Design the sequence.
């Protein structure tokens, strides 16, 4: 068993920042990550980091923009913390050597971004995330913080009181991908989940293959509610074969979208008569899919983004990187042919419910970054607001876990008397655990239960070491079972089915019927997963085993997304429902919370907090 | 646990007799030293066809895989397909034990540098239509193979860490003042290319010097040192300290300007130039020659 004060799971921007903060606050800190830190998906971010750095700008304006962008589903204490802390935390990156783009006078540059009232997006070329990730890893190396890289975290080790709010997190169970060895990691002060987004729940995404919602799923099954999971941002211009993002810059420069009949559909079919191609992300995404659904898509799959008319000179001058992307990842020469594009899953606004110190309702368990929901982004994230979230809330979680006093949080977590229970949702199938008498995730893959099963084997796991040993034993048994079986179904087939269902029915268009269909298919996936087996017999670098674990997590996460999408009967932010075309503030100024409850998901709601430190944010129509 | 993979020349003959013909033509290209990175006549020719990939297999634990071998996979071509898409297809449809690292699929995570048709390339950035068939996919040469296409990167990471790869300046402005260290546009431009490295290891694998001298820092680590040494925000003493690190016995003077690293770098970093420039700086500072 390994032992540290603070264990950070994940080494993207959020995890690295959390580790640095915990280390600086004096804790013996270690990072456990399934990827080497520099491989994390933070490296893919292009645009920039929003922070009110300049005179003339003000954190209050940033908070206001963020709240408006969230369609009034962000919690004011979280939004204000983000806006207040972002300037200092962004400047610290500069002090750590981040190669920001510069003005003539040598100061860092900022640029305008969608939904911002001031040009406050701080950037480093078109590779802001890459630089942020590398700079932070450099600081981890400098401090000698221990990194267990290519260790896959399989589960948490928590105590097992009936009410999650009474539980305590003692550490994690992980396996060394290279050797297959399964070990316990004891965390004396706290575990911080920083595992990134769940984009792989969809079959077309700008997210990496590693974005499988592992942190979401293990926190969920341990009893922490997932919040606002229905809010998923889709980006209208991703390349069809890979999901690689083609930036808004192309349309900004005058790129035009055409359907198969060569119609400029944004105008000709009246989707956005004023803004046309430059309408907001969700509007353009829905327009593209309508074209495809009505038979006017190219190859029944995508539309064309054409920039040829801009001329070679202008393209080379301003959009050269786009030419490379189209060439390298789609095999298309943007100078001679239009580029195929379609909407792709891009960002998850929801996640593991935390307060503004990163704490979940389980003591000693924290979450930060895209896997967490504080909630800053509410119904819709503004471009450039995810990276500051990583550094602001990563730092806070690290400090708090290490024992720094950050004051009493205003955001409440967990099931309590401040929540509202749902009564009238009709579900097409029973969600949750597939096996009778088990509460083990999708599992019921034949083995012992997890999280709370210690009760049934007699001893109450009061001491930390005991809880970890039991958790390790469970994972060893699970692995043996998966490897011992030699027939059944392989995870790739289940994953494909799940991803297709999510993209078909829980994407930018959501109808009651469609979402219900998705829930039925997710149920089938769970049942099929009971017969899943790992074909690769080797313990050495067994990615088959790792992906089989990830697929299980994706099933749980996808189900919460679909459940949220079904119960939220309104149109807010990125969540669009065919039958409910309005934002309903009287009814829906509240967060959706889904908790695992031993395998029988509970849905409840907590009112959004619109009261800030000094002012209250009044919901207004979100128009730009 | 690991084995050094065979040199390209000594690889076993393909097992599938059906493709002997195609295979031998590749060998010829290799023997004649020709660049086999030829562009197929017209990518649309491949529409509806299957492509043949030959993938290196090795697993120290599994009896049938202890002897390194190549497996053939026939993969249906789709427009825009990359070498990474092809191995993913092979794994998900034919053999779930086929093992390789990959994550971002967009040339930013640096996980999937393989030896494809005799050259170090990022699989996700390599279009199938641009490769001669059959396509031979192997792990990076000169590195220990862990399994299939996975190599042990520890040595590469050790070299990266050896150059103190972090910014050093004790005198930054007070953070509360929100003041940055000023940097001119020219200086930012100067270090720009060097900051693009994604730690893929392609350069190190392509380098003959690194192959012969295990302690050679290698192009990526020297480039990392360059990135800081040339950054005007670091004080002069630190720059000197950095030059001392790279001009040591296994540092810049080992480079024989063969440009192989520069050729394979997927981020187009002018590695050889950066190494040369550090040599000149070291000379200017009168640092010791090796
Ligand atoms: C193409 C693209 C462009 C973007 N552009 C911008 C932008 O311009 N501005 C902006 O603000 N935001 C942008 N975003 C969003 C932003 O980049 C992400 O939300 C953010 O980087 C996520 O960081 P993270 O630290 O939470 O997770 P990640 O960087 O994804 O890191 C997750 C970490 O968790 C580890 N991990 C996961 N599961 C496990 C497990 N089971 N065991 C061990 N380790 C595990 C992984 O190894 C990894 O280290 C963009 C996103 C994409 C996809
Ligand atoms: S310098 Fe280029 S080839 Fe070498 S590791 Fe960096 S990105 Fe890869
Ligand atoms: S998969 Fe990330 S660089 Fe290729």
Sequence:
């Amino acid at each position: 068993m390994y032992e540290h004060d603070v264990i950070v799971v994940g080494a993207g921007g959020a995890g690295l920042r959390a580790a640095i903060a915990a280390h600086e606050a004096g804790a013996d800190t270690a990072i456990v990550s399934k990827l080497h830190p520099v491989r994390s998906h933070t490296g893919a971010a292009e645009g920039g980091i929003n922070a009110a750095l300049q005179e003339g700008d003000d954190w209050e304006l940033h908070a206001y923009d963020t709240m408006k962008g969230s369609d009034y589903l962000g919690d004011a204490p979280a939004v204000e913390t983000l806006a207040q802390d972002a300037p200092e935390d962004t400047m610290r990156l500069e002090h750590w050597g981040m190669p920001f783009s510069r003005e003539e006078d040598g100061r860092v540059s900022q640029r305008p971004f969608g939904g911002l009232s001031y040009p406050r997006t701080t950037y480093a070329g078109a590779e802001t995330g890459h630089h942020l990730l590398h700079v932070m890893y450099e600081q981890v190396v400098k401090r000698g913080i221990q990194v267990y890289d290519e260790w896959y975290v399989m589960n948490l080790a928590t105590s097992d009181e009936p009410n999650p709010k009474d539980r305590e997190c003692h550490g994690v169970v992980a396996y060394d991908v290279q050797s297959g060895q399964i070990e316990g990691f004891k965390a004396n002060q706290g575990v911080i989940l920083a595992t990134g987004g769940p984009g792989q729940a969809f079959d077309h995404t700008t997210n990496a293959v590693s974005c499988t919602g592992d942190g979401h799923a293990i926190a969920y099954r341990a009893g922490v509610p997932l919040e606002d999971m229905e809010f998923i941002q889709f980006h209208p211009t991703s390349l069809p074969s890979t999901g690689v993002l083609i930036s808004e810059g192309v349309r900004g420069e005058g790129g035009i979208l055409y359907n198969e009949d060569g119609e400029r559909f944004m105008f000709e079919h009246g989707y956005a008569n004023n803004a046309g191609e430059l309408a907001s992300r969700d509007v353009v995404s829905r327009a593209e899919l309508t074209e495809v659904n009505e038979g006017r898509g190219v190859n029944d799959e995508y539309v064309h983004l054409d920039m040829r008319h801009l001329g070679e000179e202008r393209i080379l001058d301003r959009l050269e990187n786009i030419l490379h992307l189209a060439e390298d990842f789609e095999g298309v020469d943007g100078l001679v042919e239009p580029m195929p594009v379609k909407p792709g899953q891009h960002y998850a606004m929801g996640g593991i419910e935390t307060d503004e110190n990163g704490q979940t309702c389980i003591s000693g368990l924290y979450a930060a970054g895209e896997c967490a929901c504080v909630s800053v982004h509410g119904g819709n994230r503004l471009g450039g607001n995810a990276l500051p979230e990583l550094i602001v809330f990563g730092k806070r979680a690290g400090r708090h876990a290490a024992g720094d006093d950050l004051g009493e949080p205003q955001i409440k977590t967990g099931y309590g008397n401040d929540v509202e229970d749902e009564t009238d949702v009709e579900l097409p199938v029973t969600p949750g655990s597939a096996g009778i008498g088990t509460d083990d995730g999708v599992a019921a893959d034949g083995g012992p239960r997890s999280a709370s099963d210690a009760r049934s084997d007699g001893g109450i796991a009061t001491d930390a070491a005991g809880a970890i040993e039991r958790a390790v034993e469970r994972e060893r048994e699970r692995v043996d079972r998966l490897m011992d079986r030699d027939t059944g179904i392989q995870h790739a087939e289940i994953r494909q089915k799940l991803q297709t269902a999510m993209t078909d029915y829980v994407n930018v268009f959501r109808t009651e019927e469609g979402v219900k269909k998705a829930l039925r298919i997710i149920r089938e996936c769970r049942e099929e997963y009971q017969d899943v087996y790992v074909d690769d017999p080797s313990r050495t670098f067994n990615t088959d085993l790792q992906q089989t674990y990830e697929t299980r997590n994706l099933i749980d996460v996808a189900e919460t997304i679909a459940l949220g999408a079904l119960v939220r009967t309104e149109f807010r932010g990125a969540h669009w429902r065919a039958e409910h075309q309005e934002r309903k503030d009287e009814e829906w100024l509240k967060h959706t919370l889904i908790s695992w409850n031993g395998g029988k998901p509970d849905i409840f709601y907590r009112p959004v907090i619109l009261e800030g430190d000094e002012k209250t944010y009044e919901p207004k129509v979100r128009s730009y | 646990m690991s084995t050094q993979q065979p040199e390209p020349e000594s690889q076993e003959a393909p097992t599938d007799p059906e493709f002997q013909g195609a295979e031998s033509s590749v060998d010829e290209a290799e023997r004649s030293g020709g660049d086999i990175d030829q562009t197929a006549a017209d990518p649309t020719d491949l529409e509806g066809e299957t492509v043949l990939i030959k993938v290196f297999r090795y697993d120290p634990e599994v009896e049938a895989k202890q002897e390194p071998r190549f497996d053939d996979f026939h993969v249906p071509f789709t427009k825009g397909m990359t070498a990474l898409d092809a191995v993913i297809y092979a794994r998900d449809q034919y053999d779930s034990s086929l093992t390789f690292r990959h994550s971002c699929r967009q040339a930013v995570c640096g996980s999937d540098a393989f030896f494809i048709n005799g050259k170090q390339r990022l699989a996700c950035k390599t279009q199938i239509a641009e490769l001669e068939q059959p396509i031979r996919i192997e792990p990076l040469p000169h590195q220990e193979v862990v399994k299939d296409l996975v190599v042990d990167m520890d040595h590469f990471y050790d070299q990266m860490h050896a150059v103190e790869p972090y910014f050093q300046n004790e005198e930054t402005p007070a953070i509360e003042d929100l003041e940055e260290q000023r940097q001119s546009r020219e200086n930012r431009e100067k270090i720009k290319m060097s900051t693009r490295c994604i730690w893929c290891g392609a350069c190190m694998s392509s380098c003959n010097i690194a192959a012969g001298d295990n302690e050679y820092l290698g192009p990526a680590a020297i480039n990392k040192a360059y990135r800081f040494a040339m950054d005007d925000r670091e004080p002069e003493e630190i720059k000197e300290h950095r030059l001392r690190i790279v001009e040591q016995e296994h540092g810049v003077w080992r480079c024989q300007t063969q440009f192989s690293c520069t050729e394979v770098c997927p981020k187009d970093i002018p590695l050889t130039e950066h190494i040369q420039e550090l040599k000149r700086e070291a000379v200017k500072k009168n640092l010791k020659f090796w």
Summary: Chain B has two domains: 3-151, 154-286.
